[in-house]
Amino acid sequence: MEKLGKFRKIINKIYYKTFVDNFNFKLNYNFPNNYYRWDLIEYLINKNNYNSYLEIGCDKDQLFSKIKIENKIGVDPVSGGNIRKTSDEFFKMNSDKFDIIFIDGLHIYNQVKKDILNSVKFLNENGIILVHDCMPDSLGKQAVPRYKMQWNGDVWKAIVDLRQDKNLDIFTCEVDQGIGLIKKKTNSSILKIDKQINQLKFKDYYYNYKSYLRVIKLNDLKKMF
Fold first, then answer.
1. Of 138, 178, 179, 221, which sits 20 to 30 A from 102 (CA to CA)?
2. Is residue 11 part of a domain?
3. How far apart (Å, rounded) are the C-alpha atoms in residues 220 and 214?
4. DSSP labels for 13-62?
5. Non-local CB neighbours of 175 within 8 Å, separated by 6+ positions
6. pLDDT digits (tens, 9 = 90+) for 130-156
7. Residue 53 maps to which CATH number?
8. Are 183 and 131 in contact (CB under 8 A)?
């Protein structure tokens, strides 16, 4: 996670609330207690007999160290994982395919979308892509530029954008800050919205997140995946 000094937080907050968005309502999610991204990944690996895993954005290996699988690669330009590159650099040189890919890199819409589309190219048949931090509960947690230490970024915009793609089937599970689930198959529910992605504000998300993200509960996920 990038360092964020006190002065930079103040400047970014003033800029964002003055020129970008200033909507103060907050959401209350029902994330399950004691069920985290590593639990979901373990479930998917065991159920689908996956044997290859890619993680984009490893930080201090909070997740990567917990994944038990035959082949695993973790990519981070600063720390963690086992490949010290940016995701863009990694995908340019990569030739392997993976059963399950977890994206938790730079939490900015354009980069998240790029990471998803690059991951699609290297996904095995019946594989799945997971995207972390899809469900911010407040304006500050999704603001770009960032001004909060606890930060989801605008990852949600990448999910909204790609839910309009006819060749990707996407859901978002209400678990551990919101985890997007992406399969490379015909979109069974194409999203139609009347705004461009760069026009979407947190207010739009607040009132429409369930339909924007195609939110499902953990129990529903286990019936579907």
1. 138
2. yes
3. 12
4. HHHIIIII----------PPTT--HHHHHHHHHHHHT--EEEEE--TTTT
5. 31, 32, 35, 36, 37, 40, 218, 221
6. 999 999 999 999 999 999 999 999 999
7. 3.40.50.150
8. no
